[in-house]
Write a structure and sequence with these properties.
single chain; 1310 residues; alpha+beta; six-stranded antiparallel β-sheet; five-stranded antiparallel β-sheet
Length: 1310
Amino acid sequence: MSLLSRNKKTKSNNKEQKELVDKLGNDIDNEDLEILNEGIYEWKIKNWSQLTDKICSPEFNIGGFKWKLQINVHNKNNNNEHISLYLNNVDIQYDSLCYINTKYIFFIRNYYDYSCIQYGDSLSNCYSKNNYSFGNEKFIEKSKLFTKHEDLKKALVENDRCVVGVYIRTFKCRKEQYMENIKSCINDENHEILNEFFYEWKINNWDKLSNNEYSPEFYIENHKWKLKLCKNSFKPVISLENLDSLTDNTVHICSKFVFFVRNSDNYDYYHYYDSYSKSFNYFNKEKNSYKQNLESNLFLSKKGGLNKYLIENNSFVVGVFIRTYKYNEVQIKNELDYFIKYYGFYEILSEGFYEWNIEDWEQISNIKYSPEFIIDNHKWQLELRQNGIEDDNYISLYLNNLDVMDDPSCHICIKQVFYIRNYNDCSYFYYQGKKGESSKSILYYNQKNNSHGYHQFIKKSELFSKNENSNKSLVENNKCVIGVYFRESNYMKDQFKDELKSLLDNENLKVESEGLYEWNIENWQNLNEKELNRSFNFKNFIFGRHKWMLQLYPDGHGDINKDYVSLYLKNIDDENINFSHICTKAILYIRNYNNNSCYIFKELPITYYNETYNISGFDQFIEKSKLFISNNENSNKSALIENDKCVIGSFIRTYEYKEVKKEFKEFKSKLANKINNENHQVLEEILHEFKIENWDPFTNDEYNSTFIIGNYKWKLEIHSNGNDEDEENSDYVKVILKNLDVENNDSINICAKSVIFIKHSCDYSCFTSLNNESFIYYNKNNNSISFNISKSKLFTKMKEFMYKSIIEYNKCIAGVFLRIYEYKEAKEKKEIEKKQKDVENIENLLKSSSLVIAISNFTAYEYDQLDIRKDEFLIVTDWNYKDGWVYGYRKDNKKEKGIFPKIFVKICNENRKEENILRNEIITPEYRISFENKVKQFRSQNDMKMINNSETRIIINRNNLFNDAFTKIMNKSPEELKKLLRIKYKDEEGIDAGGLLRDFFNQISKEIGNPDYSLLQYSNDNSYELEINPKSNIVVPDHLKYFKFIGRIMGLAIFHKQYLSLTFTLLFYKKILNKPLEFPDLKYVDLEIYKNINWLRENEGAGNLSLTFSIENEDCYGNRKKIELKPNGANIDVNDLNKEEYIKLVVENKLNDRNDEEQLNSIKEGFYEIIPKNINSIFDELDLKYLISGINEIDVDDWEENTDYEGYNKNDITIINFWKCVREFSNDKRKSLLLFATGNSQVPVTGFKDLQGNGNIQHFRLKKYGAEDDLPISHTCFNRIDLPPYTTYTQLKQKLLRAITEGVKSFEME
């Protein structure tokens, strides 16, 4: 090969070569461009027939740049008839600033003869980072390569040899070329251009640039603009701001634009940002600026200091190219789309856009209606009030629906925005709408509210005022256009409930509680047959603190109403006694069984329910004939009753009753006056009470309630029959106030006084109380205080109580007034008690043998020492053998004994082994081995293999992750999902090499486990373990589809070896595996019943407990009803002879609860579409938990032991400091680090040796990279952190914490 250049002496003086250079140079038109450099390169090919599809020449240098020629021998794009030839620049691929303006000519010639040659046309290209390869796809036909020239009798390729070459000439980039290159970023999408403008702002002194610097103002199309540059410590941000839209609500500008920075003297060095060139951007009163982050590496060189290619003599240029477009209907809709965008579980049904041309504004009467228009079978009409409703200085504008007035069962849910614009210019308009995710932005059209809009839409004076820039007004030549843009969504349960809420006016009353109750009617025709002795049907339910009944008369209440359905709401709190007034508003309704938008409602006005007036409703709620027909023939709407099914319901809102509120304040004041503060500073106080519905004076029932004050958790216990162990106290009720936080925390000390009380359920004047006169100091050794109240005080009718007893009809209210004080005197006492307790603990420890577990390996180096293995159980018999050493033996072999370091073990309880495992405290080596073998056996099945070695790509919108993932994954077949799964986030550049998949499962876990979706719920207040929400069908339509989706996600996590960052109860995993439920499982369903049943099994005296073969259950709606465990069970007493049968029936009843059966079956359906059903023969419930979720506790020793290094070794100071830092982290911080590095915070049960990456085992890796000033960068696809060589521990810790917090990650292929 040879390289010839006019700027250098060539090795060959061959005349033919010089002639070739001259010939090619003359064929290039310079176009008055300034030449920078030129040269020729020849590539000698000696084995043409052996060329592969694509082959590149060696690198060569012309003009200070590295180049390569690329030959494509086989090109499908040209039917494989031509040879393609390209010129690639090597340097430019890694330089986002540089641009090379080039012209060149390709040629191919005979290996030995310069006269046998074929030239290409002169080509030109501006090389850049995004355009580093250019050439001729049809350079020469293959057939011509071997055709001999008539005169020369030679072919271009002879003896399998030829020469391919290029002549290159580079030019200095002109301003016009640089501008054209930036302009080419914008696609106009066939829209009419109004104007375009280049604005450049020269920064003369980078060092003196303030953090917020503004450019001079500039004008485009009579609009005023400016640039803003935030220096921000070498991470600059550039913003484009429109100044007119700040002060003028009618300014609307549709644009696309490109930010750029360049060398102030050289157009060859620049960089542009085209993120705002892809779609239209709108400047208006809501959005008047757009910003762009500029990469710091543009301004800083790799060696530190300023990048000389951009910043020269401390100066550079920043600018913007803007192109504006003419407005039309599409642009208006695009700009206003923000106001009618839905968030969450919504299905868009239709979209409406309507414009009303006003031809003569002055002729409009006070009220003017637009022509009717139809969208999605609904009739609409705009209503304009020229003189306004509330203020005649404004015009009022409304959208009316005409269907809902004729059809009371019609309900429409929409988001809408109004506008008024210039008759001839779509860009000059004013709008009003409600934006964002708030439910207030959603409007409901119904028979009560058939119109929505603005009383004060726009001031009249603003209609005719001319804009200074455009010299236009909204109403011009007596003409304008009024428009509305809206979007209708389907009715979800939430929308249905929101609409009901919106129908009730609170009338300045304070809301106490509100709720929705529904009664599903499965067979309307048979209602009366089910209740043979009644003319009505009823449904009881509890809402708030009150009991209610819906009374339904399908054939009307009384003969006069026989053609109607009658419906009533009745309060049934305590029908035989006095109770306080209940101030209530309610809506009664009948709706279609499957369609939330089809219902009839009637509103009950404010009603005060009491003893004499406890029912309210409608004798003629709806004509029976209207139940089975749709009033709207055009809309194909549902009837209220279809397939003999419907739903009866009520939305109830109770209000605080003012007289009761006054009594409560007086009562609280009485209790507070019983406490003497003794000049101590009060921190906080509370009056807490709870209602006891069924006081049983013959058993020692415990009633309790927990509450929080001062960030501390308290429990009030009422023992109705005193203390069984002390017969002398059986005539008393024992009341205990207990603090729950101090029990296990030596550092908490609380100073308090309290008043305990028990009062009448409805009368604040009827009560008894006891209080402690001295301060009580709550701590670990003293966590409670108790009082005894004489039963005679509670059950005796007294004159001062108007001959009431405190406990009547087995009901009362118990409570406490508690006051917390600043803790002073007890500090010294606390220290003394703590020291005494520590001494006692140490003495007890040294006297006793203890079961311990080894937390690390220890290798003996003396004859009397004992080797110990991590996670091994041992017995310590002497805790004070010698300083720092203990004496003991192996738990499973007493003969193996000796001494070992105290710090290598910790005390544990083997009897709580399962609990320890569940808390991730102890996972023994035996369990790890067993689990690993099970996993290998399970994954060896053909059903657990990837299909066809192909892949399925899923694009997910991160901003709508749950809904989008549901749609995409449920639309795939199980076979597609069992291929190699690749995740791509919409509008993100990451490539999934495993990291994105892990990130997806981590993110979707958070979404699935969010109780706000009402699909799952926490199993109890003290646990983050999840279980199925049995009420999901009330809140989430199509909830079973979402449960099937959850099942698929669980199966996919197992199949693709990923972990979910959530956990369920063990009972849930057991049900998934179809394992038989046993008595111990009862503790996961009802711990209280489990304890009682366990006591019953182990003790005699069942006949004294007044138990029968019946039990009270609660359905998914919260209704409690008594269930007989066997025929006539309510009349069969439980005794010691039949208690085993009773226990068996109770356990079966509780464990076979069917409240969540449908949801569970849907989860199983999705799960077993992915996972083979024989999983239950391999794994138990605990195994399944770890298979899906891994473990949370991170073993740093195991992590370090299974870490690989690149550029480091484990003795480097950076690595030593890294592991020191990790060891000092809390477990939560370690999980954050693991999440940062791998995309998931869960660890395999088998430890870090089995850490997954892209479907295979991939150890955690630390790579040496960057400088000390850089932050660590994670590559989650490869479980790797690029760790700069920090020399100090403080520096490493600060940088590492910052990286974890800011999440500096990379998703890429390597």
